Each structure stands twice: as C-alpha cells, then as structure tokens.
Amino acid sequence: MNESIIFEKEYEVSLPMININGKLGIFGLLNIIQDLSSQHAEVQGFGYEAQIKLNKFWVLVGQRIQVKKWPKWNDKLRFKTWIRLLSGKIVYRDIEFYLEDNLIGECSVSWLLMDGETRKMAKLEDFPVTVRAREDYCLPFKAEKLVKRDEFQDSGERIVRVTDLDINNHVNNTKYTQWVLDTIELQYHKKLFLSEFEINFLSEAKLDDHIKILRSEKGASEVDTQFVGLIKGSDKPVFVSNFKGKF
To answer: Helices (DSSP H) in 71-195: which residue ranges?
Structure first.
C-alpha cells in the first residue's frame, strides 16, 4: 500500500515525555500525536505551508485515545497513522502505536476544514490537494461529541501565557490537557492507570484569558471524571474532556 496513505514513524520515549512515574504520560503522548499528524500531512501535501498558501486550515475537533499499556522511559515505539475513508464534513485520522510487536494503544482524531477568510467551515472539495484515505480498515471507534454533565465542582484556574501558544497564536491543543493534569492531586498521578482519554475542542482561548476548570466525578474504585474549561466571566466552554481508568 502507498506509504503516503499509511504513514509510520518510530519514537523513543525521551526524558521530556515521561511523567513522575517514569512512563510516557498523556501529555507526552499528545505531543507525539501532534508531531506525527503534522509530518503525515506534509507527506500527503496538505501540511502547514500548503494551508497558508491556500488560506484553508485544518481545525482540530476532538480526540479519543485508548491505552492498554503505558511505555517507560527509553522504550521505542512504532506509530502507524492514516486518514479514515472520507464521509461527511469531518475528517478522521486513525493512529495505532506498538511496543515491539504489541499493539498498546489506539487513537482517533477528528478535524474540520476552515476557510481562513470567512472563518467558516469549508468544503473538502474546495481543498485542491487530494486527501488520500485508507479504504481497507479503520479503528473500531472514533472521536465523537461528548455530552457535558450537569453537576461540577471547581478544580482550578489558569491564565493563558505566551508559552501556551502555538505558531498561530492560539493555545496549543496539548496545553488544555496539561492544564487539567495540573489540577489533579499528586497522589492520584502516582497511582492512576489512565485507560481512556477523550477531549472536544469547542472554542479558542487566547493570551491572557482566564480559564476556569471544573470537574465532575463518577465512581470510587474506577475513575470516570469529566473536566470542562470555561472562559471566566462568560461561562463560554473552551473544551470538555473525559478521563477514565483505575487506581
């Protein structure tokens, strides 16, 4: 199969990627996924420079990740990614990652194409570069819209700083999860096995915005917690994210 359809890349779990337990954490994994997706887009011809030239931009909508095992420092991982067969306005990217020959995790990422001038959704046919999709297989799940819960409690606050911004002067998508992680008590970081992670990106956060983070918890022995980020004073949701796992 054409290598531009299924893109593969190896990553070594380096020191900046690991958490306090000496393993790859969700923040490190999200940064790998961002890099992997960007490199594959370049190979297929719809990377950042092409987007600038065409004034059409891919906007991240959501992610869903399932993990069987978190690799440790210095482990070498092999990632495979492809675009799911196109259907409708949302484009889905599938990702698998392996430790040696063992599949240890899967990820679905959803995107929309936006027009840089109108700031509205663009049609895929308006993008002159052909998005080459895999037709023979897709993951058994995909990133979908999350249902916001009704009852929450305060979890913390964050002011958007320069180091949170990406090349477009928007908050880097990985930073929202880092903010959530910073609101979780240390004892839970030490003993939680995160098996599933989901996030929806609902609106933009900009420099100096005050973000209020709320949490809603279910269960005791098993973790099923939802986090919501709101722009303080407006109750405008920026993101909603679900964490599931066990202690």
So the answer is: 173-182, 186-191
